[in-house]
């Protein structure tokens, strides 16, 4: 029997993918909203494909806000985009 790979839904494009193909946006007590490219940090998170487009889509369709159940100011999205570019 094939091993079941747990799938997560991208809050940008709504596609289902394996966790390892995705990055997370985490809500943390210490640092606020951060980008977790490794998927190893703890916290409540939303999943996104490793694509800048999905980050943009999540910003546009408010998928990230829905998933994290909070409103996210523009500057946080800008930070996430910067972090994404760094991690690329
Ligand atoms: Zn996506």
What can you see in these coordinates?
This protein has 3 helices and 5 strands. With 88 residues, it is an alpha+beta fold. The chain has a 3-stranded antiparallel beta sheet with strand order 4-3-5. The protein has a two-stranded antiparallel sheet with strand order 1-2. Helices cover 33% and strands 27% of the residues.
Name the helix and strand elements from N-terminus to C-terminus, one letter apiece: EEEEEHHH
Lateral strand order in the biggest sheet: 4-3-5
Fraction of residues in H or I helices: 25-40%
Q: Report mean pLDDT, rounded to a whole number.
A: 91
Overall geometry = globular
- Report the bound ligands by name, code or SMILES: zinc ion
Stretches where pLDDT is under 50 for at least 5 consecutive residues are none
Largest sheet: 3 strands, antiparallel
> What is the tally of helical segments?
3
Radius of gyration, rounded?
13 Å
Q: Distance N terminus to C terminus?
A: 35 Å
């Amino acid at each position: 029997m094939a091993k079941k790979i747990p799938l997560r839904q991208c809050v940008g494009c709504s596609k289902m993918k394996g966790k390892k193909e995705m990055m997370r946006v985490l809500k943390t007590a210490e640092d606020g909203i951060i980008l977790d490219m490794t998927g190893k940090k703890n916290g409540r998170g939303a999943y996104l494909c490793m694509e800048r487009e999905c980050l943009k889509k999540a910003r546009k369709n408010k998928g990230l806000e829905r998933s994290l159940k909070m409103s996210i100011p523009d500057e946080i999205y800008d930070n996430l985009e910067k972090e994404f570019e760094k991690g690329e």
